[in-house]
Amino acid sequence: MTSNTDTVAMATMFQYLFIGELVIFSICILIIRIKNRAVYIWLLSNALAIFASLNTLQYVSSAWKFDNAVGAGALILSTSLKVLSLADRSITRKSNRIPSILMIISLFMATAIFVLDDTVFRLFLIAISSAFLSLSAIFYLIHNKTWIGLAPLKYGVTALSLAILISIYVLSISYPIGSQTRFIPNDGSITYQIFVVPVPYFFFHMVFIALLIGRQTRENNFKLRKSLRIQQARNQAKTDEKASTALAAERYHLLKMLTHEVRQPLNTAQATLSTISQQLQRRGTKPENIQQTVLKAQSTINAIVLSISNSILGAEMITQGRASQLHSVDVCDVCQLALFDLDPSQRARIQQKFEQPVIYADADPIILRLAIRNLLENALKYSPSGTPILFEMVTDEEKLALVIRVTNMRNEQSTLSDDIFERNKRGVDSLYQGTGLGLYIVKAVAELHKGDVSYHLVNGNQVAFELSIPA
Q: Per residue in 302-355, pLDDT tens?
């Protein structure tokens, strides 16, 4: 009786140990506050396992028997729920057929335990169903996209493999089939029972919690990346919207500026052509008078062309729609072309001084010609009428650059400012007409050629503008 009493005490201790394990791990799962289908099924499984242990505990105390059909069957149902929690939502998928069949077989064995009650095949049925459920859980784990790639997955497979080995051991001690009717050997020992249920459950719980945390971390990272992508897309959309708005405003401003700049010269050109027509109709008009009027019309048309060229090129540079096309050109030829673009009546004021008759450099001749013309037009406009303008081209050995320099007298001391090369900036807006694009174009052309533009005072009343490009 003493030996049997000790066995009852050990069996009771085992049941309390198992119940404590289930309660502690259930609390741990609740603490991590992860809510999904797998967690709900797992907690339900733990509740059913606690019921099975309490039922077995009551049976042990009243009958001095160490297991019963209800407790064993409920424990198998509990394990089946745990296995089901590892499956994905598409449990009817082709990849889930084998584990689903194994689980159905296990459920039939659990039902058989209930139906047969105190059968001599109970231990055999328990061992087979445990092995099938463990194998089914492995299949579900490795085919569920929810768990694939998580580090704890390999530990889960290891724990389940251990459970299969334990089930095989239990199956071996039940041979020959029906030789033992109880979950505890006839000799009263209970040691192996602790390894049959609590140990696999312990590792299984640890792995499940680790999988939940890993899955939650991955989901959080995914949501964070998605949120960042959405935020980046919103920021990009706002940036694009601002850029589009600014671009539209710039284009409108350039169009308005171009309209304002061209309207008056066109009116002047129209009046000049009308004068030429009247002079031709009148007899006795001197040819030199007609020629002077024609030169005035030509000068006006040149001003219109320059204004249109500056506005178009300015629009291209502002919208970054024009790429520089650099190739080796004779810069002296480009300078001569820029000179021919000027008002013929003003060319005599410009004194050329080129270091060499031919100077080659990598440049875009079209936009470089316009930049040089702008420098010369700027000098003509902001210098006293009739004063000479020095047009030089030299090489700077120290900078390894080609320098195009335009030096002129100044009308007023206030015509220069630090921001004179910025867009829409002019020295004295109230006294001179213009778009404020001329020197801005020069600066942009210099940057496209990897060069720079600057100005400095030669003396109190002279200023020199220098456009430098790599030689």
A: 666 666 665 566 556 545 545 567 889 999 999 998 888 787 778 889 999 998
Give CA–CA dist 442/425, Å, rounded. 13
Domain containing residue 142: CATH number: 1.20.1070
Over residues 363-380, the mean pLDDT reads 88
For all residues of the chain together, what is the average pLDDT?
77
With respect to residue 270, please indicate whether it lies within any of the assigned structural domains: no
Considering the chain, what percentage of its residues have pLDDT values greater than 90?
Answer: 10
Q: State residue 286's pLDDT score.
A: 63
Beta strands in 288-338 (DSSP E): 327-330
Nearest to 326 by CA among 356, 375, 367, 371: 367
The number of folded domains in the chain is 2
DSSP character string of 147-176:
TTT-THHHHHHHHHHHHHHHHHHHHHHTTT
Bridge partner residues of 404 (DSSP): 393, 467
Other CB atoms within 10 A of residue 99 CB = 25
What per-residue confidence (pLDDT) applies to 154?
Answer: 86
Distance CA 439, CA 45 (A): 81
Q: Is 139 among the domain residues? A: yes
| Separation of alpha carbons 4 and 386, rounded Å | 130
Looking at residue 351, its pLDDT comes to 93
pLDDT score of 183:
47
Q: Tokens for 304, please give them.
A: 């219109």
Residues 50 and 187 in one domain: yes
Residues 335 and 218 in one domain: no
Average pLDDT for 4-13: 70
Please say whether the beta carbons of 451 and 470 come within 8 A: yes
In a domain, 268, yes or no: no
- Which domain, by its residues, includes 13? 2-231
Higher pLDDT, 208 or 413: 208
Choose among 378, 426, 446: nearest CA to 406: 378
- What is the residue-wise DSSP string for 379-428? HHHSS-TT--EEEEEEEETTTTEEEEEEEEE-S-GGG--TTTTSTT--S-
Q: What pLDDT, on a 0 to 100 scale, did the predictor assign at position 65?
A: 52
Domain annotation covers residue 305: no
- Coil vs helix vs strand at 185: coil
Cα–Cα distance measured from residue 339 to residue 341, given in angstroms and rounded to the nearest whole number = 5
Residues 50 and 183 reside in one and the same domain: yes
CATH number at residue 406: 3.30.565.10
Do 327 and 227 lie in one domain? The reply is: no
Is 334 found in the same domain as 220? no
* Distance in angstroms (rounded) separating the CA atoms of residues 18 and 48: 13
For residue 455, what are the CA distances in angstroms to 304, 375, 401, 443? 26, 11, 16, 11
Indicate the SS3 state at residue 142: helix
Domain end among 192, 209, 231? 231
